[in-house]
Amino acid sequence: MSMSTGEVALNLMDQSFSGNIATPSDLNTTQQSDGAFGSALRKRGYGWILETDDNEEDDIDNEKPLLEELDIDLTDIYYKLRCVLLPLPSLGYNRQVLRENPDFWGPLAVVILFSMVSLYGQFQVVSWILTMWVFGSLLIFLLARVLGGEVGYSQCLGVIGYSLLPLIVTGGLLVLVKNIEVLAFFVRTFGIFWASFSAASLLVNDSYKEKKPLLIYPIFLLYVYFFSLYSGV
């Protein structure tokens, strides 16, 4: 059966105006969620101002904590501090983690702490100690490479920095025994050997056994100099 011209025209009009039309209840819900100011913007054709970007919301959700952004692992730093304070192999600590997984923030914190407690508020020494840490580690690195050691500068920087922790403990003990000269001398000597042993046991390996003293001695002198800064520059 053929359709009349009028019916065809009505069908075309129905198809052209078909679609989803927001109901008044939907409009009221949108206006209530936007508030009075948002509703006024939408009435004047500025509703695009209120639109949000889904990508920005995803970026906010995916933001990392500050410590993770700076690559600071407090658990790892705490474990390395214990490895330095307790350098004896019999205690079961995996001390090689200081060499195999070096970091920057842990040694920097130890060096700054040593700087702050060294000269009782003489803050000009902080920059001097930081300089000695950077260039002293560079010297140890160059000596190790000349002697045939497989060690990186970041590893030397981390080990030398962390190994200042025994000197901080020793400095605290000296406050208690400073009036007993013999005991104070023993504490200072023990602290220097403690720090030197902790660093040398990590940086000096079996690849150059015959040349170990050539690297252990500069490490010892570096910590002697560090500890000499405790009383003044």
UniProtKB/TrEMBL annotation:
Yip1 domain mapped to chain residues: 94-228
Intracellular or extracellular location(s): Golgi apparatus membrane; Golgi apparatus, cis-Golgi network membrane
Bilayer topology: Multi-pass membrane protein
One GO cellular component term: Golgi membrane
Single GO BP term: vesicle fusion with Golgi apparatus
Transmembrane intervals: 104-121, 127-147, 159-177, 183-202, 214-232
Major localization listed first in the record, in broad terms: Golgi
Pfam families named in the record: Yip1
InterPro entries, per database record: Yip1/4-like, Yip1_dom
Keywords from the UniProt entry: Golgi apparatus, Membrane, Transmembrane, Transmembrane helix
Homology family: Belongs to the YIP1 family.
Biological role: Involved in the maintenance of the Golgi structure.
Protein name: Protein YIPF
Organism of derivation: Phallusia mammillata
Gene designation per UniProt: Yipf4
